[in-house]
Each structure stands twice: as C-alpha cells, then as structure tokens.
Fold:
Amino acid sequence: MVFACRLCTARRGAADRPVWVYRQPWQRWCGRQGRWLFAVGDGHPLEFADVSTLGAELAQANRRWGRVKTAAAGAAPGEVFALARAVVCRWWELEDFWARETVWGPRLAGVAESTQRRCGNVPGWGEAQWRLLVRDCVVFPEVVAVAAALVDTRLVERVGRQMKGLLRDRAGVEPFAAVLGERLQRPWLAGVERAGAPGPLARWVAMTAREQRKPDGVLPLRGFKGKWSVRAPHRPVEVGVGLLELASESSSADDGGLGEAAAEERSNGQSVAGQSSGGPGWALWQREAELFADGVERARRHLERFGHLAVAHTGSGVVDGFDLGRWLAGRRAEAVCLTAEQTAQLEGLDPWWNPPWPVGWQRFWHRVRRHVEEHGPVHGGDNLDGLPRGLQTWLRRQILLYETLHPGQQGLLAELGLTAGEVERFRAWPARRRHPGEAFAAAQVYAARFGHLAVTGATVIDGIALDAWLSSARRRQRTTGRPTRLGTRLHALDPWWNPPWALSWQRMWWAAHHHLNGLPDGTQWWPDAPGKEGAVAWLRQQHTRTSLLLPGQRQLVADLMRVAGDGPVWRPRISDQAWHTLADLLPSRPAGDRRYRNQREILEAIIHIACTGQTWPHTPAELGSFATCRITDPVQRLGGVVEFEVGQMAPQLLEAACFTHLHRRCTHSLFSSFGEGTLRSRSATAA
Structure:
C-alpha cells in the first residue's frame, strides 16, 4: 500500500489530504506528475520523491515491463520483479560496483535534490537516509532490464549449456552476468559477480540449470524451493527497517556499539525490527538456527573422528537418526543462501567443505593424505610404488588430467608432494606404467584425426602402441561376451571399432565412406588410404559378393551403394597423342614372335590396376582377356627404374608413370591427376 498522488486525487474531487492506494511494487510511478510514491508505514513524513529528471527512463522501463509480464511463462510477475529487484539491490550495496558505476550517482543526486526542493529536508537525515529512500526509483530501469533477461528463453537455454559441472559452483553465473553487463552497458559486471559473495543471481542460475537437467515431464519446483524465490539473506533491506537501523546506529554511538551489532545482524539476514517485535517469522528463524547449530556440532564430531567433512551421501552416514551426509549436501546445494556467519562456521571446521569439484575426489585425497602422513610424500620418479593399488590408480588419473584440474586441486596435490615438477618427472620416466586413460586419449586423437579406429598397422601416438592396445581391448570384450566399460567409451568414438570381420575390410569401408560422403570436418586421410576410384571399385566388388558377407557387412555395403549409384563406364586413359609418344619408347617385338599382343591395351590395363588397386581378373571387359593383359614383356624389356615428378613438360610423358608403378616407385597421386599433369624424368636406365 502506497500514498496516492495528491495532485491526481485532487483533480478527481478528493480533498487535500493523504490518500492510500493498493499498488504493486512496479506501479509506484506517477507519470502525469513525475512522482515516485512511497509506501505507507515506512516511518518518515515524505509521501513521494520528485523523479521528473528521470521521466524518459522510467517511461521506457514501464513500457518494457509490460512486455516482460507477458513473457514470464511459468512465473508470476511479482516473483520475477522481486528476484530482479533483489539482484540489483545487491549490486547497490557492493562497494566494488559503485567504484565503477557512473549512471546511478547522477540519478541519485538529481532525485535527492529535486525532492528536497519540493518537500523540504527531514531533520536528522543525511546521505545514508536519502540514499535508502530513493533507491527503488533510481534502479527501476535496471530492475526491468534484469527481469527481461531472466525470462528470456534463449538466455535460459544458454545457462543450461554453460553449467557443465557441479551445480553448486558459481562458474555458470559469470557468463550470464557478462550478458547482463552487455545489456546494461556495464561490461565489468561479470567481474563484480565473481569477486563478491554468491547472491540471488548465482542461486537462480544454479536452480535453472538443475531444472533443465531433470527428465521431461518433471514439474519444476514452486514456492519457497523454486528458482524464483528470494531467500532471506538475499532480500534487500526495506526503507522502514533500514531507517530504524540507521537511527539505532546514530543513537547508540556512545552506548557500547549497538550499531555495529545491528549491521552484523543485518548481514546475517536478521533485522532489528524483527527481533524487537517478535514477528511471525521470528519463531521459524529461531528453529532454523537451532537446527543449523545442531548440524554444525555433529559435523565437528565427525571432523574430530575422521579429519574431514567429505561425507558420502549414503545410508551408512546416519548416526543417532541424523544423516550428516544429506545435511551437508543440502548446505552445499544452498550455499548461496547461507549467511556470512553460517559460512564462516563451516569453513572454520573444514576450508574445503564445499569444494567446486566432486566430494568423492575430496574423500580420495584424504585417503592419500593419511598414507602420506604415515609413509612420507609421493614422488614422480618411483612410479608411485608403495601405494595401495586403488590410490595408485587415482593418482595416475590426476597426473593424466593435471592441466585440467582446478587450481585448488593442484594445490591439494602439492601438499601430498605431487607438485607440477613431480608430475613432469613422472611423465618423463621411460619405464613407467601408463594409465589406461592415456591410451584412451591416444585413441581419441586418432579418431579425431582420421574418423575411425580401424588401426591395422603399427601406430604409435605419444609413446603408446595404439594398435596393440586396441587389439587387447577387442580381445577383452570378446572374451567377456558383453560390452565392457572401455568398449562403451570406444563405441562412442567409432561404432565399428570391434567388428566381427577383418579390420582391413573395415578400413576399406571407411575409405569408401569418406570418398562418397565427403571427409568430415577436421579429419584427414591416413597415409595408406586408397583413392576414390579404387575405394569405389572395391565397394562394387563387395556388392557382387554380397552372399558371402556377414549381415553387418551387407548392411554397410548397402548403405554406401545407395550413395554410389550406378557403376561408371570404362574410358581409355591414354590419348592418341600420348600413345604416339609412348609407342616410340616401347621396345620392338622380338623376331619370330607372331603372337598378337596389343601393347596399348596392356598399358591401359596396367594403369587401371594401378589406379583402382584391383586384381588382374577384375580388369574391364573392354580390355580383353586379363591373361593377355597380364603379360608384361614391354615392361620387362624396358627394364630399369624410372622416377618421375610433376613438372611443366609435355603431357604425353605422363603415361610413362605406369611402368614405374610396377617397381613401386610411383605414388597413387600421380595417377589421380592422369591426363592433366606432366612428368619430368629425373633419371632413367634402359636395358
């Protein structure tokens, strides 16, 4: 309930006396008279603030709020406005924010001066009272802008994608605050959110991400546990309560520092007015404080016995009817809602009671620390010998992922003796036993580079024999008869990493797949990859022998045949002009040899076999009998070794590359540009 504008009520026939009306918090601006109406019962004599200097900004914010109310799907407008107001009012209280803010200062000074001119100054009031009084009208445009961001569905989806790790971590609030900073023209806002204590914005981000992780059909939480609720520590101080606190601070300057106690209670989510009046929320707050004190006492006992608070959330953690694991998990999930005093109590017991990494990691660290206290620190040069097998496996994984660990985790490992230098020393030791994760990382590198895991030859990546490791993984999965844990991870990299047929067949299928569908982005051809013509010819050969293939092979071949289409028609590769040049290079027919051999067909067959990689029985029918084409007398009589490279000479010499292919001196790339490039002879010997 707020004071009504006296000028507007007088125009409607009311007398010149105070009038009260019921209005929402966003309906306190009188645009006709340029006034911001104050709430009734705040304990001060003023009824309004003169905001004529902010008329344009408040009008624009008011129009924008009308659109925000319609976009607030699943939430009441009052909840959205209350949360946005709590976020902005928290910034109002931060000194780091005011050190960079340049807009609110002139607004505050203009509204305070114009109000004092219209209504007069209140005796005993100073800058703090006026700052509290006109706060809501000064920050109203920013409150509406924040509310518009909170109901933006695109930003909400971005929040879910950014929160990859633990929901209690504040990592997701920084990108969202950066977007808010762009909208509010305050690019430094993300740094303020990162430096300050977790506030209502951090809780909203975490709760939003938690809702998006729930299965479809699960209704979001509403009311006190919902994401739109504002917890007591985050609620801004209202004008009436704040004026009472300021009055108590000024009146108790000489009686024992009651003002400091009031300020401390305010930071803890309490109010002097609430304590003195014993309001309806006092009993609930007192009960919550008792329960928290009981949980802290039980946590202290557990710490004295086990040395940490990384308690597992299981039924075994229930002691005397109290589930300490569940209680600590609840405090971690709602860490942004704890008061400063409650946070200090828990951090006093264990500084890492709420780490930004899984609590299971913290439990393993405490196990290793107990071993270190008994046997000394761990070293990187002894291959972690002497540790139990489980701790060895855990430490090797930390060494493998050392660069990706949180700085706090790296500091905790340094307390065990595993510094960055020891990590490098462990990695450089040639005889060390490698962690399985290193081999899997090598498989990830190979799959990302070539698009498959059909490794057939000797392949070494970062000192790991990938072919041998994959063969061992295939044998292990075939022995167990079911998908192993490692097999499931490898299946995500390549669905056919462990086929029931030869790996060479699968490798050729991948070549045909990449040639027909295009090489995926970021991948490249492996060194011995066949050309497109050879891969497609192999695919058609497999299609002709479908009855001999396994069901899985048939399906793979059928999928590619739909892309390959009809078979190509064979065309000669040697032009007439090139043949006239090559005919002079070929030796003459021996005397007495009357068998007819078409040398041009023989050369065409040789080039076809070189380009496609097929066997002689699969030469095209246009070249005649393969037995005739297989005769290589011209090549044998030419003899010697001829090496060619791409140059700028006559294209007729390109056909001579077919001779060098039989001696394994010509790469497949020479034939792929057949008829277009040229060849230059480096050296030649002829018999």
Q: What stands out?
A: Confidence is low (pLDDT under 50) at residues 265-279, 630-687. The first helix runs from residue 6 to 11.
